[in-house]
Every structure is written in C-alpha cells, then in structure tokens.
Amino acid sequence: MSDFHFDRRQVRRNFGRAAGSYEKHDALQREVQTTLVDRLDIYEAAPEIVLDVGAGTGRGSAALKKRYPKAQVIAIDLALPMLKQARQNASWLKPFGRVVADAYTLPVPDRSVDVLFSNLCFQWCEDLSRLFAECARVLKPGGLLTFSTFGPDTLKELRAAWAEADQYAHVARFLDMHDIGDAMLAQGLRDPVLFAERYTLTYPTPRALLDELKGLGANNADADRPRGLTGKQHYKRMLDAYEAMRSEGVVPSTWEVVTAHAWGPPAGQSRREGGGEIASFPVENLRGSRRKTPF
C-alpha cells in the first residue's frame, strides 16, 4: 500500500475534461501502446474476451480489435466523455464495446478474460493489492495481463522545480517497479516480467509541458494537493527553476515507463490478504462425497 492517495473523482473529472484534446498530446502514449501491442506475440492462443482497461479515446481498443478480429474487445474507462470520444476509433467493420467502470471493480465474471491490456492507466491506481487482486480475479487461468504504467522518475524535473517554489504536492507521485512486481506476485499472478525505460521529451517552455499535461488530463489528482489557487509568485518561482534546466534551447521532461506482463493464476492458487492467504476455486470443483455419519 502506498503512502499517498489519488482523488478518484478528480481523476475522472480531469480525464473527462481532456477527452476532446487528448489525441493532440498523446505521442508518448501511442509509442508505448505500439510496444505493448507488439509484445502480445507471447500470447499464442486465439482470445475470446479482451479488455482494454483505461482505454481513453480507444486507440488501443481499435488496435486490439484489428489484431483479434474474432474476439470481443471491451474498452473500459472511468471517464464517460473519453468513451464517447472513442466512438471515432471504432469502425463498423471492427467495432468494440465501451463500458464505464473503474479498474478496481471490473464488470466481468471471475475467470472470464483471456487478455487484459492496459496502457498508461494503472499509475492512477495506488492500491496495488486491490488492483492486481481484481486482475487475477477476472483472468482465465493462463490468461495474459499486459500493461504499462509510469514510474517514480516521471516528471522529476517538474517536481524539482515546484520544490523550489513551495512544499506542497503539485505533481502526481508514482510507484516503483519493484513494488509493482511484489504486488503482482502477492495476488497470485504468475511469472511476472517487468521492464523500465526512460523517455526524455523536450519542450520550448515549461508552460508548453503544463499545457500538454492539461490536454492529456494528467493534472495533479493527489488527495493531498493544495486546493486553493497557486500564487503568482510561487508559480513564477517554479517557472524560473524549470528554466534553469534549459539546454540547447529546450527544457527536458523525463518519463519513466514501466511495462509488464504476467499470467492468470490457476484455480485454487493462494494470494496474500491481510495476515494470511486465501485460495478460491470454481464451485463445480468443490463436489465431494456425502456420507451419513452414524451417531
């Protein structure tokens, strides 16, 4: 469990407001999506049910439907305006479903999903135990979970610049790759493999980066964020501190991207919860003989 929390309502509002502008700013998201889709080669079966969790405007859902035309592909997102926007990426020849739901409570039965795909969404779910317990619940035994998320070095320059201005949390905090891997194992997901890559994007000004974050819906949604207006002097100090990082005419922004995959656990595999372990079985596997015991 992390020591910080996101305001889920604010996350929903941020992404809802950004639905119309998202695809103008999603170059990194598309690059990472391509990597994730290419790695689906490790799944050799023909899936029946594919979930795209945190689907946004549906680019990933469309790519999944193109790859698996016979599968039922379902785009899931917390923000309804994003899914409305996703309609433009769903062709009449290769349509996909669209459902408003939270990654913590996926609206599908136990052990029903062949492939669970999520591109740069899980960073907004700080309760990793709850998140991966839900992934393990919905995956078929041997089903594939593949996802990307942001690591703690993401936006480190912006975070450092704000630290020069005041002591408040202005930039979202993200979890370490090792914490992610431990949480996957704790919830019974099998054979997790994780990679970390760093991308350095450059911008003409710090304001250009802030405009991009707003256009993506990636505004600060930390529950402990300052709720009032940021003073002009604080804002100027942050901009000045960021400007000091300028090199060769541009300012840098680091994005640490963690990509991972794992496999759905077999029925009955235990997972850690609280101080003990829990195992679940399909009810049809619990048939037993019945004997009358004499008194």
TrEMBL record:
<dbReference type="Pfam" id="PF08241">
    <property type="entry name" value="Methyltransf_11"/>
</dbReference>
<dbReference type="GO" id="GO:0032259">
    <property type="term" value="P:methylation"/>
</dbReference>
<dbReference type="InterPro" id="IPR011814">
    <property type="entry name" value="BioC"/>
</dbReference>
<dbReference type="InterPro" id="IPR029063">
    <property type="entry name" value="SAM-dependent_MTases_sf"/>
</dbReference>
<dbReference type="GO" id="GO:0102130">
    <property type="term" value="F:malonyl-CoA methyltransferase activity"/>
</dbReference>
<dbReference type="InterPro" id="IPR050602">
    <property type="entry name" value="Malonyl-ACP_OMT"/>
</dbReference>
<protein>
    <recommendedName>
        <fullName>Malonyl-[acyl-carrier protein] O-methyltransferase</fullName>
        <ecNumber>2.1.1.197</ecNumber>
    </recommendedName>
</protein>
<comment type="pathway">
    <text>Cofactor biosynthesis; biotin biosynthesis.</text>
</comment>
<feature type="domain" description="Methyltransferase type 11">
    <location>
        <begin position="51"/>
        <end position="146"/>
    </location>
</feature>
<keyword id="KW-0949">S-adenosyl-L-methionine</keyword>
<keyword id="KW-0489">Methyltransferase</keyword>
<dbReference type="InterPro" id="IPR013216">
    <property type="entry name" value="Methyltransf_11"/>
</dbReference>
<feature type="region of interest" description="Disordered">
    <location>
        <begin position="265"/>
        <end position="295"/>
    </location>
</feature>
<comment type="similarity">
    <text>Belongs to the methyltransferase superfamily.</text>
</comment>
<keyword id="KW-0093">Biotin biosynthesis</keyword>
<comment type="function">
    <text>Converts the free carboxyl group of a malonyl-thioester to its methyl ester by transfer of a methyl group from S-adenosyl-L-methionine (SAM). It allows to synthesize pimeloyl-ACP via the fatty acid synthetic pathway.</text>
</comment>
<keyword id="KW-0808">Transferase</keyword>
